[in-house]
Amino acid sequence: MRAARLSHHQGTWQPPHAGDSAAVAYALEGSTFTAGAAIQWLRDGLGVIEQAADAGSLAESVTDSGGVAVVPAFTGLGSPWWDPDARGAITGITRGSGVAQLARAVVESLAFSVRAMVDAMVAATGELAVLRVDGGAAAMDLLLALQADQVRVPVARPRSTESTALGAAMLAGLAEGVWSGLDQLASLWELDVQHVPTTDQSITDAAYAQWLRAVERSRSLD
User: Fewer beta carbons below 10 Å: N end or C end of the chain?
Assistant: First the structure.
């Protein structure tokens, strides 16, 4: 497996392009029930940010979450747990915890969720070389940097992050002969920015392990 695309709302694992447009292809899909909604919760539920775009700058105002871990299982946990009875949890709060640490923990939780899905997919299919992202949360550079550190491969954001609408248009154009085949469609993808791992893996693994412990606690709250 050379490359993958993962949306922050719903992940789709895509195999390398087949030169023959009639070739059969398969995909693995992983879904997280709460991603962008966790950012909306910071805005609408807690009022710690005025607009969703503020989450990234607030989270970046601190170097780490100060030990705070958030599991945004507001409607249960999706891939790879598939536990509808899990409930959201916040752990590691101390007197020094503030809104910046909370925002950072929420952003980190999205990166951790992606790693959980990617780890499961890699275990089933093999090595991953690139992670392509899309959706509204992909505009957050901090999130992409955290994802790169967690999955240990480059994370690439395209110029157009509206992949759902773009994909529907491409399928329609392919059916009508606007494009000759899948290879031509693939050539339309344009890189906007790419993040590579920069943090020592032992540090990222420790943070992920802490979050997994919080996940297990969230699954015992029903």
Answer: C
CB 31 within 8 A of CB 11: yes
pTM, to two decimals: 0.85
In Å, what is the CA distance from 138 to each residue of 17, 94, 98? 23, 30, 25
Give CA–CA dist 96/24, Å, rounded: 55
- In this structure, which amino acid lies at residue 48? V
State the CATH architecture for 3-15+27-218: 2-Layer Sandwich (3.30)
User: For residue 139, what is the DSSP state?
Assistant: G
Cα radius of gyration (the chain): 18
At 206, which helix (H) or strand (E)?
helix 201-218
Give 100-129 pLDDT, tens digit per residue: 999 999 999 999 999 999 999 999 888 899
CA 21 to chain CA mean position, Å: 29
- Residue among 55, 92, 100 at smallest CA distance from 70: 92
Indicate the domain borders of the chain: 3-15+27-218
Average pLDDT score over the chain = 88
Three-state SS at 5? strand
For 167-221, write each residue's pLDDT tens digit: 899 989 988 999 888 888 888 889 999 999 999 999 999 999 999 999 999 998 7
Looking at the chain, the whole-number percentage of residues with pLDDT higher than 70 is 90
3-state DSSP assignment of residue 29: strand
